[in-house]
Design goal:
Number of strands: 10
Distance between the termini: 34 Å
Length: 250
């Protein structure tokens, strides 16, 4: 890490417990500003659980989580709300409101957390819809009229509505055909540079791992097996890494 690198998320000695089942046992890692960072691991390794802990939907049994310079386990309700408004989340299946149009879905947080006139809110929503590569007429469609790829992009537009510093993506390419998945990866990379975003991505898509991620962790046996880049993986002799990547090859 050089002198100009700024950490955005820090996990220190995180333990996660569900009843008698311990999922994480002393997990530590750091996500730096401006990178696309991956949370990887086999099924049941607790990748999405780490993401949920970052966005305060779940609490660890012990350990310290720092997001945007704030220890999130010691915040007041007003501090929590202020922090949550600095990030956007794209859930695995989009989590769109089926009774709302695309424009209305993208506008939800703007209507709830700003006092902007509706005309300005609609202009912002249209701009975000365009930003994620959807045609103008898509604003007036409903989720039932969208393809899987379009739903992901609408969810992404909604996640970007409040101009977040941090973007969380949970399995963003799952359910997409290979061409659509790579197009989504390219979009995320473009948005990272355009909006100066830090992106945290849960994924098991090997192409996304190789193409889109700057760094990542791989979870194994309740701990961080490795934190680094694909070069670090290639230079490692750990058998579990070979097993992980061979298992996820198509």
């Amino acid at each position: 890490m050089n002198a100009t690198t700024k950490s955005i998320v820090e996990f220190k000695d995180i333990v996660t417990q569900f009843g008698p089942n311990r999922v994480h046992d002393g997990v530590s890692f750091t996500i730096n500003q401006g990178e696309i960072y991956g949370l990887l691991g086999g099924s049941g390794a607790g990748k999405s659980t780490l993401l949920r802990q970052m966005i305060m939907l779940q609490e660890p049994a012990s350990g310290i989580i720092t997001v945007l310079g704030q220890k999130i386990n010691s915040l007041s309700p007003s501090q929590i709300e202020a922090l949550q408004l600095q990030w956007g989340v794209l859930f695995q299946f989009g989590a769109l409101f089926s009774s709302l149009s695309v424009l209305e879905n993208v506008s939800v947080t703007l209507k709830e957390y700003t006092k902007l006139p509706i005309e300005v809110i609609n202009d912002i929503a249209h701009a975000k819809i365009k930003m994620v590569g959807l045609p103008p007429h898509a604003a007036y469609l409903y989720p039932s009229e969208l393809s899987g790829g379009m739903k992901k992009r609408v969810g992404l537009a909604r996640a970007l509505a409040m101009d977040p510093k941090l973007l969380f993506l949970d399995e963003p390419t799952s359910g997409l055909d290979p061409a659509s998945a790579r197009a989504f990866d390219r979009l995320i990379i473009e948005l990272k540079y355009m909006l100066n975003l830090t992106v945290v991505m849960v994924t098991h898509d090997l192409d996304s791992i190789e193409y889109a991620l700057d760094r990542f962790i791989i979870l194994h046996d309740k701990k961080v097996l490795i934190e680094g880049t694909m070069d670090d993986v290639h230079n490692s002799q750990h058998q579990a890494l070979d097993t992980f990547f061979n298992k996820h090859k198509s």
